[in-house]
Design goal:
InterPro entries: F-box-assoc_dom_typ3 (IPR013187), F-box-assoc_interact_dom (IPR017451). It comes from Aegilops tauschii subsp. strangulata (Goatgrass). This is F-box associated beta-propeller type 3 domain-containing protein. By secondary structure, the chain is mainly beta. The chain has two domains: about 150 residues, Thrombin, subunit H (Beta Barrel); about 140 residues, no CATH class. The strands form four sheets. Strands 9-10-11-12-17 form a five-stranded mixed β-sheet. Strands 13, 14, 15, 16 and 18 form a five-stranded antiparallel β-sheet that branches. A hairpin with a 4-residue loop joins strand 15 and strand 16. The chain is globular.
Amino acid sequence: ANPATGEALNLPPLPTPRFDDQSTCYDRSWHAAYSFAYLPTSGLYKVVHVPCHLDRSVYDRVHVITLGEKSWRGVPAGSGARCSLGDNVVSIDGVTYWTTPEADKVMSFDLEHGRFTSIRSLPSVVLSSSKNGGSWHLGDVHGRLAIVFTQLSPAVERTEVWVMQGRTVGQIRWSCWYIIQTRTPPHRPREPSSRTKMRRLTWPLLVQDEQILTWEWSLYERDHVLYRHKPIEDHTRKAKHGVVDINERNRGTVVADINMLPHRNDRRTFAYVETKEPLSAYGPLASPFPLYMQSSSSSLPRSNLPTKRGHC
């Protein structure tokens, strides 16, 4: 969809799954298997679908469609390919990434060359997440792949954002760029569960203009509220670009209200540059234009965003 023109594009249906490929469990997390990608070398827009379901993580191909094409294309993924739907799918700089149930590697799919590879050199804190009680998912920090690692406790939630540098095996390095600590007020104790998090990082884009973006449900506003937080220097030198401490006295700067669909937390954030390019050039438009897009809040400042044209 393009909020600037009020247009939304219809995509053709996915290929009919084989009998043994049909999932018996499709709940509201189905959206996590899709990702929107831009190829800077060709200027093409693509949608990627990793056919991973909540009740089965094995798949044999990935579906890809280029805007303007009339059908999806299946790309063989090899035998034994697996994904973890709960950790979502992220596309950055023409490459789509997702995680596996074993949580010991990240899969990547180069959209330009149609090549699958695995990234096994992950941060040590991530590889030991099953032992230290942490969880992690993928994100986008300034056009780089990031691993967002979180540990929960009743009083504080600590998140480390690890950013990948390099793209080929042997050149990949990870460094901790940010540490975010969210402290729970004494009158709002919680069990250490991701389902009860009061404040969440935006996804997949979680940093804009060197500020961390978070959102939470506001009982007073009866809506979701978007915040930004300026990191401060980390004197322990554990975080390269600083630390954010979120508490009752330092809740962050309110940016906008976020209109979300009822009972859904699947609103995504992207680097967006306004364009009047008509989506009708790529195919049939959706009608009517989705109501949740019509009522979207004002966007973030556009400084330091990529100069490419973009849709969201």
